[in-house]
Amino acid sequence: MQVHLRLGKCGAWLAIAAVVSLFACGHDAAPKSVSAAGNSTANSAASPAATSTGAATMPALPTTQQVDPSEAASPASQTGGFDGAAAYDFTAKLVAFGPRPPDTDAIRKTQGYILSQLKSFGCATSVDDFHASTPIGELAMKNIVAKVQGSGKGIILLLTHYDTVRIPDFVGANDAGSSSGLLMEVAQVLCARKTTEPHSVWIAFLDGEEAQLVQNGVAQWSNDDSVFGSRELAASMELSGELKRVHAVLLADMDGAKGIKIEKDPNSTPWLTTLVWKTAARIGYGSIFVNASNGGVQDDHKPFLDRHVPAVDITEFPNYPYWHTAQDTMDKLSPRSFAIVGHVFLESVRALQGGQH
Q: At what angle do helices 84-95 and 335-353 cross, to 10 degrees?
């Protein structure tokens, strides 16, 4: 594996611990495998209990996290209808389930919660239950997709992962929690709209993004041990013929931290990156979506890029110091950051719906 500054999700530490980083890359520059092994696809019209997701009831929350007034979200009327406080709250509820690695009781409860919330928003949903072969054994995984029907055949695909890495006491407030809470609020906004847009919008909550093998507290990201849910979704959409309908893929990952700064991922599709960053600048967030490179991130967008589907990763990595530590907790997050990134997502979708390219 080549080592260079900001190589994937371990680059921020290469200058400090290059030798350790040879084995620490959670999102390194290695190519990804084509497909995770899926075994069944089922529609989620049944109740969460009937789809074996565990209890869909809201978890008991810990003591309410006090939010500094300076971190409060702007009103939804100022952010395209996106409620940053609601996204923060969804994230808090996900984090309250605790660590959420694949094929655990906690992630099954998380799946039930996500699915029940999407249904409460009026979203049409589908579920893909599949099994992935990992270095620690075969694991049951589940992708959950909310679908907002368009008038045409095109699809705009939004992605997030909701699983957490297998590090003790890691609750993943930013890494998994924030992007999932953010896209839950995006789903709530889009599923409630009465007008029909040209393209359908699919919002996919993916399992198994993280490497399952952890040694000495470090996830051992590899071609075959990573992005299981994304590989499964890309492969199944290719098999069904739906992949050729995808106009663009927007990936959310680690998007809720205080003082957020999002750099461009050079692995992402240039025209789509430009569209998102121009959109952010147009609505006043040029100081957040900055004109700098993060060095290149391997993430859930990679299986789609490998199939020549335009995709962009919207992530704060590698500039988040609590990545893959037990300190990645709710107190590091900001409703203001959720509101900013959520606003950019909605406006980017709007631009794509309007035919911008």
A: 110
Lookup result for tokens 């839950």: 184
Mean of pLDDT values over 260-269: 98
End-to-end CA distance of the chain: 34
DSSP string, 244-272: GGEEEEEEEES--BTT--EEE-TTS-HHH
Q: What are phi and psi of 164, to 5 degrees?
A: -115, 155
b or e along 236-256 (b: 16 or more beta carbons within 10 Å of the residue's beta carbon)? bbbeeebbebbbbbbbbbbbb
| pLDDT over 80 at 39, yes or no | no
Question: Torsion over CA of 44, 50, 53 and 58, rounded to 10 degrees?
Answer: 100
Among 21, 31, 19, smallest CA distance to 6 is for 21
Q: Please tell me whether residue 338 adopts helix, strand or coil conformation.
A: helix
DSSP H or E stretch at residue 145: strand 137-148
Across the chain, what does the average pLDDT equal? 86
Tokens standing for 295? 């060095």
- Please give the model's pTM, rounded to 2 decimal places: 0.85
Which residues fall within 8 angstroms of residue 244, CB to CB, at 6 or more apart? none
Give the SS3 label for residue 171: coil
What mean pLDDT is predicted for residues 324-349?
A: 98
Q: Would the pLDDT of 149 be above 50?
A: yes
pLDDT one-digit tens code per residue, 166-185:
999 999 999 999 999 999 99
**Alpha carbon distance 241, 339 (integer Å):** 35
d(CA 48, CA 126): 12
Enclosing H/E stretch for 185: helix 179-192
Q: What is the pLDDT of residues 124-141, one digit of tens each?
A: 999 999 999 999 999 999
Tokens 């055949």 belong to which residue?
Answer: 153
Pull the structure tokens for residue 128: 């893909």
Question: Per the CATH hierarchy, to which homologous superfamily does domain 8-353 belong?
Answer: Zn peptidases (3.40.630.10)
Residue count of the chain: 357
Pick from 10, 134, 138, 95: nearest CA to 332: 95
